[in-house]
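Lab notebook page, bench 4
Experiment: in silico fold of construct C2
Operator: M.H.
Input chain length: 120 residues
Purpose: comparison with the prior construct
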Amino acid sequence: MRDFYSNEDVHLVGTGTFKTHVVTDANGRSHVTLSGIIDVTGTGVTSGAQYSGRQAFEQHIDPDTDSAPFNFTFTETSLLIGHGAVPNEDLQTTSHITINANGDLTTAFVSGGISCHPPL
């Protein structure tokens, strides 16, 4: 990803854990809770600057339809922490989740970008 504050590419690696909970109420309506944690570490390709970040999220969704499949896309912003004298950055992530007709999570992907975190 490109860090627009330092004008440098930052190589991010990490893991994401997602949990999906689907409940059908007495009226036949589905209610979905998506939660997860994304952990990343990053290294500036030119400078070697080090970053780390953790983003936890929980989304509650009441779909417009009475049954799966469902597709959800949501965006979150979290802090990417610069180590030492490296300034912090904002990490924006967009997550997409697909739940099939059986209620199983079949697709989960995250994409994102880095932007300048204003100094305090």
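Observations: Residues 16 and 119 are 28 Å apart (CA to CA). The chain has no helices and seven strands.
Next step: discuss at group meeting.
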